Amino acid sequence: MDTKKRRPYWLDGGTEICEVCEQPYVLQAEHRCAACDAAVCEHCIENADTGEVFCHPCRGEAGEG
Description:
The protein has a single domain (12-61), classed as 2-Layer Sandwich (Herpes Virus-1), CATH 3.30.40. 9% of the residues lie in helices and 22% in strands. It contains one helix and six strands. Strands 1-2 form a two-stranded antiparallel sheet. It has a two-stranded antiparallel sheet with strand order 3-4. Strand 1 (16-17) and strand 2 form a beta hairpin.
């Protein structure tokens, strides 16, 4: 009997597109920017000292980092 298991979600290419880098990512790894509410992947976020998540453009506009 040959049964195929589904690949774990983190190994799939993903169906969502990051609004910053425009690369695909899986929905379960999505982050939302605290300033602009953009959907971004885990590679395009920066954490503020407060623990809030910002995308690179918003973090740069705030003059932090």
